[in-house]
Amino acid sequence: MKLSHDDIERLALSTLARWMGELTSRAKWVKPVNIEVLATHQLGLRLDYTRLDDFGKLPSIAAYVDTDIKFRQYLRDARITVPANTILIDESLKAPEYPRADSELCKRRFRIAHGCAHHILHKMAPVHERRKMDAAYSGRVLTMSEFSAISNWREWQAGALAAALLMPGKYLALLLGQRRLKFYGNRLNKPDKLALANLSDRLKVSQTAMTLRLCQTGYASKLPASEYHDPTDIECDDDFFTAQTSAAYV
Asked: Which residues pair with 142 in a beta bridge?
């Protein structure tokens, strides 16, 4: 089952609407989507944490059926069973018990959203396709590489749906209005840099995730680095600098 970007936007909106009701139409009321509650209460998923592979090949695993996986954990060969309807996340992303600052918050939120997206897409698939996927994960022990290979063809859809769940298009429209950010290569001018930081903080996502989302939805454009321009820069002629230098020595 392959979905277009428009299909994914509609799917994200309908999922959020079923859980949250109608999304707010006021920018001041926009809040981060509580993705943990969406995962556990709306979708009935279990969130769990462990060390996933010493080499960091997978930051999270979404299991539709009981899935046995073998990998390297703490420099030893390990084998675990990930129960059905579980999102297993690397323990490095677990929220601290008494946080003053949770530096991994954005990463954890995206991994949970990514797992939610996999489960939503799985439930939407035709019955024969779901059975085929379930059979691929059950009845044998998978290596991390094998697990990734089975999931790989769905990754772009899950990533796009995760982004749409955390950064709903309606929220972006409310927060940005007619404004469009401009990336000059990898650079932003100061006003756009501040806007990107504010958007990311408002929705509790990384600036990288927000950048990709803005570009995909048309709220940001890519321009050549040579065209970089910062409207907050102050251009002064030589007479101004001469006068300022002279004044400094008076």
From this structure: 69
| Best CA proximity match to 32, nearest among 199, 154, 166, 160 | 166
Number of residues that this document lists for the chain: 250
End-to-end CA distance of the chain: 76
Whole-model pTM: value is 0.89
Q: Which residue ranges of the chain lie beneath pLDDT 50?
A: 240-250
Provide the pLDDT for residue 239.
53
Give the separation between CA 109 and CA 104, rounded to whole angstroms: 9
Do 188 and 182 meet the contact criterion of CB atoms below 8 Å apart?
Answer: yes
- The string of pLDDT tens digits covering residues 225-248 is 898 888 887 655 555 444 444 444
The span from the CA of 60 to the CA of 45, in Å, is 14
Distance between CA 250 and CA 77 in Å, rounded?
A: 75
> In which order are the strands placed within the sheet that holds 141-143?
76-82, 67-73, 141-143
Q: Domain extents for the chain?
A: 5-169, 178-250
Q: How many whole angstroms separate alpha carbon 108 and alpha carbon 206?
A: 10
Q: Could you tell me which residues come within 8 angstroms of residue 142 by beta carbon, excluding any fewer than 6 positions away?
A: 67, 68, 69, 70, 150
* Cβ proximity of 94 and 48 under 8 Å: no
**147-163, pLDDT tens digit by residue?**
888 777 688 899 999 99
